[in-house]
Here is the input.
Amino acid sequence: MSKNKITGIVIALLGLLTALIPTVIFKVCAAMDGKFMKCHWTSQVEVALGITVLVLGLLIVLAKENAASSAYAAASAINGVLVILIPTVVIGVCGSADMPCNSGTKPALIIAGALVIVVALINTISYLASKKNG
Here is the structure.
């Protein structure tokens, strides 16, 4: 199995994990008095980002050219950064440290986003190095 296929599969699985973290694995807070907490909106965006990363991973697997795989990997890395920024800076989670979204969801999303970035950048840097040397 080629390096690109392995990278694509790993990124696709991390995308799926990102979508599942706030909805299944570390569920965010339910509506309170008919109002949604910040973590609900973070969850909605993270599901969309997770699906995007999953699709990019599949595109890496299906790409015929190494340049295309590298471009999809770079796009995955950018999405990985967004996975981290949504719960930490852009939207956030509930203010109380005792809430499950703070103790479970947020750290899990940060780890998932960081893994996407690392795997994607390894692929992209490897491709760029091979172009430079070849």
Summary: The chain has one domain: 3-129. The mean pLDDT is 94.
